[in-house]
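Input record (one chain):
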Amino acid sequence: MIDKKVRWETMFPDELEAAFAECPLLYLTYGLCEPHGPQNAVGLDALKAHTIACLAARAHGGIVAPPDYWHINELGGYAIWAHEWIGEVPRTWVTSVPPWVHFKNVLYQLRQADAIGFQGVILLTGHYGPNWEDLKTLVKLVQPYIRARLYSLPDFEANTPGFDGDGNSGGDHAGRVETSLLMALMPELVDLERVPDEMGVHPYAMGLSVSESDRRIGERMVADEVRYLGERAAELLAAYQNTELPAPLTTFGQTEALWQEVVWPELLKFCSMQNNWGAVASPPEDSRWYANWRVPELGGGPSR
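The corresponding structure, as predicted from the sequence alone:
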C-alpha cells in the first residue's frame, strides 16, 4: 500500500483513470516557502500538507494534485508579523502572491476538478494566519456553483488531539508542532543542530517551543490527520450521491463570471485583506516589509 501511486504529476493516464474509478476524490494542497526557523526547510508548509495528503490518498483513495507553493504573504497582518518574526533579512525567500491572485488560482483549480468529474475535493493548507479562514469562506461562496463537494481546512484542524493529546495546542510556526510533523514526514529536512543556544529570540521565525519537538509525537499527529482526512473524504463522496447538484463548472468564462459576480464583491471582507490583525497598525516605514503592507485599492472591485 505504501507504494501506491497517488500523485497526479507522476502517474500515467491509465493509472489516473484507474485511481479515479476507484475513488473520484481530489486533494489540493497549499503552502508557502518562508523561513521556518534555521532548523526547517523553507517549504515546510506545502511539504507537510502535500505529504499528508499523499498518505491519506494511499490509505483511503483519491488523487493528489501538484502542490501550490505560491501563497499569501507580505501584506496586511502578514507584513506586521514578518517584520517582527523574520526581520530585516537580506533575502526573504518567500513565495508570496496577494490574496486576489491566490484565491482566483484556487477557483481555477476547482474548475479543473469539476471539468474532470471529481466528486469530492479536499483543499488542505499548511500555511497559517487568516488565509485558512478565507479558504473556508471561498468554498462556502462557490460551493453552490460547483458540482464536486468541497471541504477546506488548515492541516492543524485534522490534528484534533493536539500536540499533547489535549486538543488545544493546534498549529504553530516552526515550533514543536510543525517541526515534529516535518521530522516525522521528511526527517532529512529538519536539523535541530541549527537551533541557537539562546532561546529568547526567534531567528528566521523560529517557534520558541522548538526544543519540545519529538518525531514520535509527529508520527502520531500524522496518523491522526490521515484518519481525519479519510473521514472527510468519505463524507464528501456520500454527499455527492445524496445532494441535488448544480451543473459542473467547466469553462474559463464560467469561472471568470463566478469570480466577478460571487467572490470579488466579498473579497475586501476576507481576513487576509485587512491592513492589520490587532493593536500594531503597520510595520515601521523603514522596514523591508512596509512596501507591500497596505492592501491597495483594487480597480473594478467593490468600493471601500
